[in-house]
Amino acid sequence: RRCSLCHTSDLRRGDTASLPGFENLTMGYNKYLRPYFGGEPVQIAMSLDIASISSISESDMDYTATIYLRQRWTDPRLVFHGNKSFTLDARLVELLWVPDTYIVESKRSFLHDVTVGNRLIRLFSNGTILYALRITTTVACNMDLSKYPMDTQTCRLQLESWGYDESDVIFTWLRGNDSVHGIEKLRLSQYTVERYYTLVSKSQQETGSYPRLILQFELRRNVLYFILETYVPSTLLVMLSWVSFWITLDSVPARTCIGVTTVLSMTTLMIGSRSSLSKTNCFIKAIDVYLGICFSFIFGALVEYAVAHYSSSQKCAAKAPQEGPSKELTKEIEEVNITDILNSSIASYKRKISFTSIEISSDNVNCSGLTMRTHEKIKCVLRNKMHRIIGYFTIQNPSNVDHYSKVLFPLFFMLVNVFYWAYYLYF
């Protein structure tokens, strides 16, 4: 420090005319003590320029930005005569007191040093110091991806004092929202900056209450890329699965090939969409819901053909054995003569008369026979009801399955799309 002061004193002797009042500038100056030490807090006004936001990562939930941070404060120990301002060598920062500002929730940060450290020190005659830095930082941003890719994310850039609490320093924005520049000119690949605003807050910790400045900005994702990349292909695959409804049931290879191909293509599309966000699979995203809907419709078209083909084969199998017995029945009917019909009717009539003449008593009643007949009646009733219930679900005409599917599948898919886009875009 003694050598640096000697070098500074030599500089002052040579440039006294160009730096009026600078000869006693650093005498008695202690950089380890803040301005107004032991008295009122130091007012530090800040402004920001957002040079770029290079990346926004959903998997790591952070963003990387390059910013120009400018801090202004007044140090009465550096007042000199005149009304000029001087830009000093950035290495003189080591001789001055500067605020201990840090970026909250920063994962990685570095100060640019090509060709020298990108810092600026400007000193005004009233003791005001302008200290500017060029910083690239990666800051955490908590994201809610439940509506991905139709989501809007809110990220923050927070500046806070590390060691000085509110009794020592006070942070303020230099011009409110106008203290931030460059963010409205950003052009991002997947996002659009909708709005931003500045806040002044406090951070209450165990060691005290620290001043904090917050820049909050909202990023709306551009959904057009995902519509062309995922939504349109998945919709076309669903429509391709409907082609099988116009193919006859007998064309087993054609319909099976369409169904299996669309199912495998949809599976590949789902895996590809999730691989880009491998670390966020815990979220059920909007794109996952849509791909699940499309996969259900494609799989449903394949199941529809399986049901229709099975019903058609069952109907053909039921018709085949009925042809032989029907011929035998016609032959038997032809051999039956009128005499046999008359004899059978007379015999049944005699049995009825003999049954009415029998005297019924308690000794003649067989209870076991009655119970057996009751069980048989109950079984018969249940069997009839089961046959009726099964008959309701039995497809009488398998060709009608394709006929109804041609209308119901597209109609229901359009209805689901209306509810899907209305929910994720407006709710």
UniProtKB/TrEMBL annotation:
Family: Belongs to the ligand-gated ion channel (TC 1.A.9) family. Gamma-aminobutyric acid receptor (TC 1.A.9.5) subfamily. GABRP sub-subfamily.
Domain Neurotransmitter-gated ion-channel transmembrane: start-end pairs: 230-333
Membrane topology classification: Multi-pass membrane protein
Membrane-spanning intervals of the chain: 223-247, 253-271, 283-303, 407-426
Subunit structure: Heteropentamer, formed by a combination of alpha (GABRA1-6), beta (GABRB1-3), gamma (GABRG1-3), delta (GABRD), epsilon (GABRE), rho (GABRR1-3), pi (GABRP) and theta (GABRQ) chains, each subunit exhibiting distinct physiological and pharmacological properties.
Name by which UniProt lists this protein: Gamma-aminobutyric acid receptor subunit pi
Residues covered by the Neurotransmitter-gated ion-channel ligand-binding domain: 23-222
Keywords of the record: Cell membrane, Chloride, Chloride channel, Disulfide bond, Glycoprotein, Ion channel, Ion transport, Membrane, Signal, Synapse, Transmembrane, Transmembrane helix, Transport
Gene designation: Gabrp_0
